[in-house]
């Protein structure tokens, strides 16, 4: 009798209950009830997502789907529905050609899905790169790349991803290393340096050395280096090294103590491997005159990279050998300026500018001080401490002076890219400058976070999300980086994922203006206007805008969300509180209120003053209701943004 054999593309999903055999041995009746409940969840979700159950295998199931998106959404919903069960489920998914014979399926895809299921985290979902690539940007799910994993009875390693939504288990860095079978040091964190001088006034210098070593190490492309912001939480810590390494997701940790006496520095450094256990690899002392501090950083980087056998390009090897003497007073003054700059207050920025200016007076050829002055002037303008007309000439003057002294400086390229993006609106130049900045410093979390925004602005949303996720890996505890990630998720219309990220920031930090402003936008985009209203009210109160909060509340009582937002827009447009409100801010209020005419009026004003928020005009979902208006399209044309949006489908997932 002829047997029907058919080849077809299919997504294969394997599921399994964790510890089922053990549970059966402990309480058979209870375990059978869990199995019944799990089976009901599986069947309901597989049917809902147009899948087909191929067979049940004791405590698990094998199912087939026409496309990977259906399989992934089904797996996600199974796990979410199973949260209340007294058991955990593992799920694996692959996509490819399978052989269908007499209702069963065979092939490499079936084997891969089975192996992925067997190594998945309890309560988690592992899927192959074929599934991830097929899905693209078509669902509101966060994915975590686990790397190339060897699977039993599979010839080649499989690039594997895990669903990383907040409700799902996080695959730890150490487990990723365990799954990949790698014992190579590929990532490192430098903990805050400990000062032995006993002088609190020297803390700025010690912090500056810590930052400088991270910056030097960060230029090594083969090494993932955690940014300083996330390591500062471990200042004077008593936590075990393995615990810190797990938090930061690194294979090794650098610790150091510093003693400074006038123009002499001594630093003692140790390197600790943290992949499986705490293992002290190396320790060394360095003594230098302050004028040779840059050569000390280079020697440190050279010794660390040699110890861990990091692969360096020729440019990186040249960089390690390249240094110059500094004028001690200029260098110390520069580090003091960095200390004040990081306070991000008006007083801090003013004092940092004084220090950087003095540094350039002491050493007119010290490029980092000019780069820093450009950054401070831009920061003062963005925060409203000075107007753009005063700030921009100083930004450009100092940036170009820095470039003339050190043309291949990553920080200089970053500020150049920022100006091209948010001030000049020159997208190609911005892209090239960001790419060069990240070539010179691939571990620049801030650079990657803002590059993600340029990618979003120019409608490269899948790349934008991936770049933003890289910035999180490099600086996992930086609330600004997290907020910028939440904004990218919102632009990519991954609204629930954005909500989860932003709520976590508010939970940990409380008052965080970017998180609040983005979250109220996310709720608007979801059509959850009551929650958006609440976020508006809280954010106004947190900023001390009591009257705006009152007007919002009065309007909401009278006519709901549109009336509330319209009332605040009128209040701000008339400057009745004596404060300056940007036309962009007023335009977004009118847009949410449904007043397209007034929204366009203020968007035109924002364009005229080159408001730094205008680049988001094409990508922000709140403007969906304006997209068919000729005036809106004309603004996109004037900003050369329409080229990125001519064929865009703006429907939300």
TrEMBL record:
<dbReference type="Pfam" id="PF13181">
    <property type="entry name" value="TPR_8"/>
</dbReference>
<protein>
    <submittedName>
        <fullName>Adenylate cyclase</fullName>
    </submittedName>
</protein>
<dbReference type="InterPro" id="IPR011990">
    <property type="entry name" value="TPR-like_helical_dom_sf"/>
</dbReference>
<dbReference type="InterPro" id="IPR019734">
    <property type="entry name" value="TPR_rpt"/>
</dbReference>
<feature type="domain" description="Guanylate cyclase">
    <location>
        <begin position="11"/>
        <end position="117"/>
    </location>
</feature>
<dbReference type="InterPro" id="IPR029787">
    <property type="entry name" value="Nucleotide_cyclase"/>
</dbReference>
<dbReference type="InterPro" id="IPR001054">
    <property type="entry name" value="A/G_cyclase"/>
</dbReference>
<dbReference type="Pfam" id="PF00211">
    <property type="entry name" value="Guanylate_cyc"/>
</dbReference>
<dbReference type="InterPro" id="IPR050697">
    <property type="entry name" value="Adenylyl/Guanylyl_Cyclase_3/4"/>
</dbReference>
């Amino acid at each position: 009798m002829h047997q029907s054999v058919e080849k077809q593309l299919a997504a294969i999903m394997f599921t399994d209950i964790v510890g089922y055999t053990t549970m059966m041995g402990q309480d058979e009746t209870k375990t059978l009830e869990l199995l019944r409940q799990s089976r009901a969840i599986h069947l309901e979700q597989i049917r809902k997502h147009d899948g087909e159950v191929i067979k049940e295998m004791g405590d698990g199931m094998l199912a087939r789907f026409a496309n990977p998106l259906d399989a992934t959404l089904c797996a996600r919903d199974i796990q979410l529905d199973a949260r209340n069960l007294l058991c955990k489920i593992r799920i694996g998914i692959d996509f490819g050609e399978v052989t269908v014979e007499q209702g069963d399926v065979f092939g490499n895809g079936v084997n891969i899905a089975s192996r992925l299921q067997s190594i998945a985290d309890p309560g988690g979902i592992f899927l192959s790169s074929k599934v991830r690539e097929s899905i693209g940007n078509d669902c509101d799910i966060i994915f975590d790349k686990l790397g190339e994993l060897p699977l039993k009875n599979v010839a080649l390693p499989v690039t594997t991803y895990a669903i990383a939504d907040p409700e799902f288990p996080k695959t730890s860095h150490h487990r990723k290393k365990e799954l990949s079978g790698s014992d190579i040091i590929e990532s490192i964190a430098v903990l805050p340096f400990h000062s032995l001088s006993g002088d609190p006034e020297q803390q700025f210098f010690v912090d500056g050395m810590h930052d400088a070593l991270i910056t030097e190490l960060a230029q090594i492309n083969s090494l993932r280096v955690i940014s300083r912001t996330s390591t500062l939480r471990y200042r004077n810590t008593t936590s075990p090294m393995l615990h810190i390494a797990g938090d930061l997701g690194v294979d090794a940790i650098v610790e150091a103590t510093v003693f400074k006496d006038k123009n002499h520095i001594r630093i003692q450094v140790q390197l600790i491997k943290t992949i499986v256990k705490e293992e002290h690899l190396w320790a060394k002392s360095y003594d230098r005159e302050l004028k040779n501090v840059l050569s000390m950083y280079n020697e440190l980087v050279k010794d660390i990279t040699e110890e861990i056998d990091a692969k360096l390009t020729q440019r990186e090897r040249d960089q390690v050998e390249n240094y110059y003497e500094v004028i001690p007073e200029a260098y110390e003054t520069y580090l003091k300026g960095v200390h004040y700059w990081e306070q991000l207050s008006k007083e801090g920025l003013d004092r940092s500018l004084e220090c950087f200016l003095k540094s350039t007076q002491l050493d007119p050829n010290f490029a980092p001080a000019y780069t820093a002055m450009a950054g401070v002037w831009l920061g003062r303008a963005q925060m409203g401490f000075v107007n753009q007309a005063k700030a921009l000439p100083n930004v450009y003057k100092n940036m170009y002076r820095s470039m003339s002294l050190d043309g291949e400086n990553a920080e200089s390229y970053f500020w150049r890219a920022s100006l091209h993006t948010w001030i000049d609106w020159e997208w190609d130049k911005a892209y090239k400058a960001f790419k060069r900045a990240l070539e010179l410093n691939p571990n620049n979390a801030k650079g990657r976070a803002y590059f993600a925004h340029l990618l979003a602005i120019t409608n490269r949303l899948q790349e934008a999300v991936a770049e933003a996720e890289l910035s999180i890996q490099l600086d996992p505890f930086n609330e600004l980086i997290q907020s910028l990630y939440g904004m990218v998720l919102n632009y990519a219309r991954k609204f629930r994922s954005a909500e989860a990220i932003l709520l976590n920031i508010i939970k940990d930090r409380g008052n965080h203006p970017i998180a609040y402003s983005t979250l109220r936008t996310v709720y608007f985009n979801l059509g959850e206007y009551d929650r958006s209203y609440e976020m508006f009210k809280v954010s106004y109160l947190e900023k001390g805008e009591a009257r705006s909060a009152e007007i919002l509340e009065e309007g909401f009582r009278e006519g709901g969300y549109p009336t509330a937002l319209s009332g605040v827009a009128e209040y701000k447009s008339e400057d009745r509180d004596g404060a300056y409100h940007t036309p962009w801010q007023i335009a977004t209020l009118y847009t949410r209120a449904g007043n397209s005419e007034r929204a366009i009026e203020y968007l035109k004003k924002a364009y005229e003053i080159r408001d730094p928020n205008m680049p988001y005009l094409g990508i922000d979902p709140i403007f969906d209701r304006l997209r068919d208006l000729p005036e809106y399209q004309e603004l996109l044309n004037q900003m050369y943004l329409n080229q990125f949006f001519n064929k865009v489908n703006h429907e939300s997932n």
